[in-house]
Amino acid sequence: MKPDLNIDDSSSIPKYIQVVKAIKGLVTSEVLCFGDKIPSINNLSAEHSLSRDTVEKAYTILKKQGIIESVRGKGYYISHHSDLSKYNVLLIFNKLSAYKKEIFNSFVIALEDRAEISFQVHHCEYDLLKKILEKQKETFDYYVVMPHFKKDQEQKAYSLLESIPNEKLIFLDNKPDDIPCFGAVFQDFKSDIYGALKSLTSKLKKYNKLILVFPFHSSYPYPENILLGFKKFAVEEQFGFGVMSEFNLDHTPIEGEVYIVIEETDLVNLIKKAREMKGLIIGENLGILSYNETPLKEVLQKGITVISTDFAKMGKLTADMILSKEGKMIKNEFSVIKRESL
Predict the structure, then answer these.
(1) Interior/surface letters 230-248, b for 16+ CB within 10 angstroms, e for the rest
(2) Pick the CATH number of 15-78 from 2.60.40.10, 1.20.58.220, 2.40.50.140, 1.10.10.10
């Protein structure tokens, strides 16, 4: 069969990718069926004015993905083993933010056209999660959930999640210990901050007190394991340390302190206050360490040192788990970006 690939010469998408997407689309729409023969590399090159290398590269990708197979002496065929079925996915976040958007975008892009995604937000509330699950009457192939909840609602929410078939349940960003699931891509909040601070020990030693600004009263609670990892490091390294729930403009930072800040409002207030204080110089006698990278932190105060997980990778790894049908427990990467604020 001679497939119509509709290659767009003006598109920014590489032509070999266009060939891959076109053939997969023809299989999905059943224009090409399993067992159908497709043109040879030379014939497809000639028919669509493509270089042989372009078509060969596309066919190599399609073979690796199990979409086509080659039979010696006969040519290329749509594989009987190819799987281009669409997955029905219920994606439930705990909140909306710039970081969550990174996860969402990478998840959707990695799945390409292989999934119908229903997106919901439970806002860390048990009742909202319950309503979402009750309202979504259809059966999903996968339930991808961020299990962050208010402390007094956590156990009820976990019990609700246990009602989801464990072979369909994937945890994202956080992983409850006792709930069986198909897979998870998660942060280890205690070991992540501990490891990050450990890697910064030489820079931190010029200060004498570490202060974690931990938003205890936030509408969207943060994992308390962050506190445990912070305290573990401070005690082991014999730092003076403190914890405060927010940094407001009534607070006065002093020389020799390092502030570890989670929310951006606290970061802005801290920088404002430091600029008002005579003798305080960020990165020399006052340290700042912030959670989660943003473009702004690269330029603020000649750069704010950041500790952050790779949000885009989190989304992609979760999508890959669905596409491969292979459940895994994956601790997501966590890294330190060293800048002038320490």
Answers:
(1) bbbbbeeeebebeeeebbe
(2) 1.10.10.10
Closest CA to 218 of 187, 183, 245: 245
CA distances, 66 to each of 62, 70, 189, 294, 317 (Å): 6, 11, 38, 38, 20
Tens digits of per-residue pLDDT, 210-235?
Answer: 999 999 999 899 999 999 999 999 99
Among the listed residues 4, 130, 22, 118, the one whose alpha carbon sits nearest the alpha carbon of residue 68 = 22
Q: What is the DSSP letter of 277?
A: S
Which class for 111: exposed (0-12), middle (13-18), buried (19 or more C-beta within 10 A)? buried
State the Cα torsion 24-28-32-34 to the nearest 10°.
100
Residue 258, strand partner residues: 210, 287
Edge-to-edge strand order for the sheet containing 68-71?
37-38, 75-78, 68-71
Are 260 and 210 contacting, i.e. CB atoms less than 8 angstroms apart?
yes
Tell me the pLDDT tens digit for each residue of 238-295: 999 999 999 999 999 999 999 999 999 999 999 999 999 999 999 999 999 999 998 8
Distance from C-alpha of 161 to C-alpha of 181, rounded to nearest angstrom = 10
pTM over 0.85: no
| Token pair of 215 as six digits | 């938003």
Measure the CA–CA gap between 193 and 93, rounded to whole angstroms. 23
What one-character DSSP code corresponds to residue 257? E
Structure tokens at 176: 């409850």
In the CATH scheme, what architecture does the domain 190-291 have?
3-Layer(aba) Sandwich (3.40)
pLDDT per 10-residue tile (average), the chain, 342 residues: 80 88 85 89 92 94 85 87 76 95 92 86 97 86 96 96 96 95 98 98 96 94 96 97 95 96 96 94 97 91 95 96 93 96 96
